[in-house]
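Today's session is about reading a structure prediction critically. Students often jump straight to the picture, but the first step is always the sequence itself: look for stretches that repeat, for charged clusters, for runs of hydrophobic residues. Only then move on to the predicted structure, which in these notes is written as discrete structure tokens rather than atom positions. Here is the chain we will use throughout the hour.
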Amino acid sequence: MNKVTPFLMFNDGLEAAIEFYTKTFPDSRILKSSRDGSDGPVQSAEFIVGGQHFMAYAAGPYFKFSEAYSMFVDCADQAEVDRYWDALLKQGAKPTQCGWINDPWGLSWQIVPRRFMELVGDKDPKKVQAVMQAMLKMVKLDVAELERAYNET
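Below is the predicted structure for this chain, in token form.
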């Protein structure tokens, strides 16, 4: 275990959430889980998603996720953005804006193409501003549109 590990408090659906996360992202697996009784729902779990270790607990309605805490997914290209975005949508996630999407359990995900991070890291503030303005108009991030904004500046 890492010295510091994110601990997620789920309202409900812990088992379905961790099954989805570990099937969707590479380098993921459920390490252990415990049930409430012999056949009850999963009450607590340790799992790895994308190489990141997590702990979780089914806490009931006392805690709610917010966009103040999100999962940032570094995507190699548009195809990877599309794959994760579509997987989340099929699971019932709700897109918000700027590459953010909220899964059915309330957790927020930022599905971000690596190229976006490269473009906003440019030394030319006008190019960075153009990319940011383009991004602010998007729901799912589109690499071709981001590059167009960058190149036309």
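Discussion point for the tutorial: The chain has a mean pLDDT of 96.
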